[in-house]
Amino acid sequence: MPAILTERKCEPCEGGVEPLATDAVRELMAALHADWKYDEARSLIFRHLEFPTFARTMGFANAIGWLSSVEGHHPQMTINYGSCDIQYRTTAIDGLSDNDFICAAKVDLLAKMEI
After folding, report:
1. What is the pTM (predicted TM-score) of this model?
2. Burial class of residue 87 in the structure, from the number of CB atoms within 10 Å of its CB (0-12 exposed, 13-18 middle, 19+ buried)
3. Domains in the chain, ordered, with CATH?
4. What is the pLDDT of residues 64-83, one digit of tens each?
């Protein structure tokens, strides 16, 4: 397996590369929290997180916003009172890239924190 995902940085992706093959996706999924799911039909990964208060939910969502700006790779997010749904997919290649897994692993680190 490549270097630990949380130690890597996202690489700009403007297209022209192939999305990850299913075998590679399954291998990288093993490096993420078990709550991440792979939707093969839509070529994306997603996770649902719950929080005790709206303030905690927004703190987490804002931390993901900061992470996304630093990495230059952005998820789709749905924010509710006590939950946040996150989806990663690399639009430029119409599928999953290493960047999606790098960011997902960093989201896992944020989820462990008491934000």
Report:
1. 0.92
2. middle
3. 39-115 (3.30.1360.20)
4. 999 999 999 999 999 999 99
